[in-house]
Design a protein that fits this description.
mainly beta; 10-stranded antiparallel beta barrel; 1 helix; 10 strands; about 55% strand
Length: about 150
């Protein structure tokens, strides 16, 4: 219930600017299993379609220093698409509203979150680029390959 309330408030605060993506079918290029290697660390992100209004994702990393993971979701609510991330540092999921979308990219924004405030996903050939940043474009990029 808290997720729905938070998402409804975000829908009011962030009117949809993503006219090209009025349904999750436009983001189907994200579905699948993605992985990258960085030194001894393996990072991964997996997405699957749950319904026409919901994609479920899982992301994480494994290294000699340990493991981390987070649960992700793309959800259509009140005619808008939200990216929901449940990480161990936060009691509730963090919601990002879809702000911009093309046939192979999507940008999600939550200006009120400490970091990140913007998530930009882009498919470039067979490579998934994920830019994680603040509103001043300071952040980092992850480059995933299909697994």
């Amino acid at each position: 219930m808290r997720i729905l309330l938070m998402s409804a408030l975000l829908a009011i605060a962030y009117p949809s600017a993503a006219a090209n993506c009025d349904n999750l079918g436009a983001l189907s290029w994200l579905l699948g299993q993605w992985q990258m290697q960085k030194g001894d660390k393996t990072l991964w992100e997996n997405w699957q379609k749950v319904s026409d209004n919901s994609f479920e994702g899982h992301a994480g990393s494994n290294s000699s220093k340990g493991q981390s993971s987070e649960d992700l979701r793309l959800q259509v609510m009140q005619g808008q698409i939200f990216y929901l991330a449940k990480v161990s540092e936060n009691a509730l999921p963090v919601a990002f509203a879809l702000q911009d979308c093309t046939e192979n990219s999507a940008t999600f924004v939550n200006a009120g979150h400490d970091f990140p405030q913007r998530l930009h996903y882009r498919l470039d050939g067979q490579q998934l680029h994920i830019r994680v940043e603040d509103l001043h474009s300071k952040g980092f990029t992850l480059l995933f390959q299909p697994r």
